[in-house]
Amino acid sequence: MKEVFCIGELLIDFVAEKQGSNLSLANEFTKKAGGAPANVACAIAKLGGKSSFIGCVGNDPFGTFLLKVLENEGVDISLAQRSEIFTTLAFVSIDENGERDFVFSRGADKELKYRPDIKNKFNKNIIHFGAATALLGGSLEEAYGRYLIDAFTQNAFISFDPNYRGDLWKNKTDVFIKKCMPFIEKSSLCKFSLEEAKLISGKEDIMKACDFFHERGTQIITITLGSEGTFVSSHGQSQIIPSVTVKPVDTTGAGDAFIGCLLKQISAQDYTDRVKNDTDLLVKMIATANKAGAITTMNYGAIKSLPTQTQLDN
């Protein structure tokens, strides 16, 4: 089994449940662990995979809480860092359809320092980059870029999810797109939402968007379409893999559950080479990953709602 290293932010989600999607009207919040790369690491571990988290939290009670959550889920936190800057916070409101509104208060996640001594750990393993805050500057962005080069030179299977958050990139989407390109060019697998695929490619047509990404180097493209399933393009073939029908209460973490489940399957059987050329195998894996994403939307909070292998099998 290959190890999956997930690089990026780990933060506190203060969730206003059942209070609508307008944060200004919310009065009560529940503390939950969040951050897309951390969610992916937990998704892999909960399914029996081997995952490690690389990111930074504050040297405060919230940071301690977050690392404990990951450790309890089976994620290796030995490469996580602590900072005297306060832990990053996100305030999230959720409406009756599970849709969200975000506001960030950025802190320690941007303080991640690059460690050249862990380069060899990447050798022929899987490296997942979740970019919600990683391209916003600070030493995190520098480390992020250097880890990309390390992963590439170590023949790792590279996975990238841009995790676009409009609140973080107001009037700067062109900068966001430019900063995503090196990761798209070097990734074996890219996971986009439909909004992200259109935004970054500049194409309204999903096939043209995929052509754009393939031309820049990405071998496997997945575009999540919510309840409609996932569009996949690989090895000259493309199709929509249907999802399962559920009643969502919180869509937070659904995409992370999807990519985590997909990466776990790739890592478990060492399919890092085969999956690039075997479309039937890839389709089967994505159908399973769709189930993981759907299950996650049926409860509040990303990590708590991520499925175990038993739940997935049932």
What is the β-strand count? 14
Number of helices: 10
Helix vs. strand class: alpha/beta
Fourth-level CATH superfamily: Ribokinase
Model regions low in confidence, pLDDT < 50 over at least 5 residues: none
Strands side by side in the biggest sheet: 4-1-9-10-11-12-13-14
Give a quick account of the main beta sheet: strands, pairing sense, barrel closure.
8 strands, mixed
Mean pLDDT: 92
How much strand content do the residues show? 15-25%
- Rg, Cα atoms, Å: 18 Å
User: What do we call the CATH topology?
Assistant: UDP-N-acetylmuramoyl-L-alanine:D-glutamate ligase
The run of helices and strands is EEEHEEHEEEEHEHEHHEEEHHHH
Notable characteristics:
eight-stranded mixed beta sheet, UDP-N-acetylmuramoyl-L-alanine:D-glutamate ligase, alpha/beta, 10 helices
Textual characterization of the structure:
This protein has 314 residues and is an alpha/beta fold. It has a single domain (3-309), classed as 3-Layer(aba) Sandwich (UDP-N-acetylmuramoyl-L-alanine:D-glutamate ligase), CATH 3.40.1190.20. The protein is 36% helix and 22% strand. The protein has ten helices and 14 strands. It has helices spanning 36-46, 61-72, 138-153, 173-186, 194-201, 206-215, 254-268, 279-296, 302-305, 309-313, and strands at 3-7, 11-16, 30-34, 50-54, 56-58, 81-83, 89-94, 100-105, 126-130, 157-161, 189-193, 220-224, 230-234, 237-241. The strands form three sheets. Strands 4-1-9-10-11-12-13-14 form an eight-stranded mixed sheet, sandwiched between helices. β12 (220-224) and β13 form a beta hairpin. α1 packs across α7 (254-268) and α7 (254-268) runs antiparallel to α8. The longest helix is centred in the last third of the chain and has 18 residues, at 279-296. The chain is globular. The model has no long low-confidence stretch (mean pLDDT 92).
